[in-house]
Amino acid sequence: MTITVRYFASLREALGTDERIAHHAGATLGSIRDALIASDAAHAEALARGRAIRCALNQQILPEDTPVKDGSEVAFFPPVTGG
């Protein structure tokens, strides 16, 4: 399946605005985050498990165990993004 991943605030500065990735069926927001962390050093640092990062699926903040479907938009952002 293919999804669009978007980044906001400080994550956007570190990783860019968005990217399209392929991921296995049955993925969750958390498994997508883990795959991105494993993909390279920049993602590992920006999305590290020790950092407070919020996840959204199709513009709705949801927990990391939420399933993701093909064609979805996943967004990551820090808890406070500002104006």
Automatic annotation (TrEMBL):
The gene is moaD. Gene3D superfamilies: 3.10.20.30. Keywords: Nucleotide-binding. GO terms for cellular component: molybdopterin adenylyltransferase complex. It holds the Pfam family ThiS. One of its GO terms (biological process) is Mo-molybdopterin cofactor biosynthetic process. One of its GO terms (molecular function) is nucleotide binding. Belongs to the MoaD family. It comes from the Bacteria. The keyword Zinc does not apply. This is Molybdopterin synthase sulfur carrier subunit. Signal peptide: none annotated.
